[in-house]
Amino acid sequence: MDSHIGHMKWKHGQTWYRVVGDLQSGLTPLVVLHGGPGACHNYCEPIADLIAPSGRAVVLYDQIGCGDSTLLPDKPKEFWSPELFMEELELLLTHLGIRDKYLVIGQSWGGMLGMQFAITQPSGLQALIVADSPASMKLWLSEANRLREELPPGVNEILLKHETAGTTDDAEYTSAVNVFYDRHLCRIPAPPCVLEGRRKQALDHTVYHTMNGPSEFHVVGSLKEWDITDQLHNISVPTLLISGAHDEATPLMVKQVHDRIPGALWELFPESSHLPHIEEPARFKRVVTDFLANF
Description:
alpha/beta; Rossmann fold; 8-stranded mixed beta sheet; 8 strands; globular
């Protein structure tokens, strides 16, 4: 599959992107918003691998502060906001010449960003896919605490000990976090694209630690109070929700989203946690290509 790598220059630096396929194919291109916040595009590469062979171009990019885009470790915490990444997305759409007609799939934080973007009813957005995302961080934390209590004996106690002491960089904390991740982030051995993304993210934790915190479930950053639940009814494009039965984005929180977006569809992947596009790729390909068939 042909691909093109480029950089968009804007006031905050350069945004790295990769277009897989032909933007002029006649099929509406799909733009992928990766998670984190602060992760990289790499773990989303399977989405392009699954969807682009249909002839639809897929756009991958590293959000500013992430991966191969400009890293900004000295920016104050106020700099990092959903509005910053919405501005970047709008500029990228214009840069690629697709602002009048495009699709968005957002995974985890990317889905949160995608929903907040769609609430503004941008004219060129044709449809939205939200994968493994909450609309409320308060509910995310509540569910995370419930999942933590179901971990093997002693694991949550280790997590709480280090979170209370402020020693979340301790190896013991990391090991305990991985017990949670193996259940609720990815239930199969991490493929190379996931490992590469983790390697890049480890080079600069600024965005993740500032907006989220030291782990998926210890949210102490600027997103702690983030909640767009009461605005979801303003999403006016066809919307597909994807999540895993074992997802840290639990069925309870995805149902909250489903009930509030008019006409939204929801596909629950029975063998997946937080990465259905990696854990159940054949089902993911079928579900997404069927949904996008009319665009």
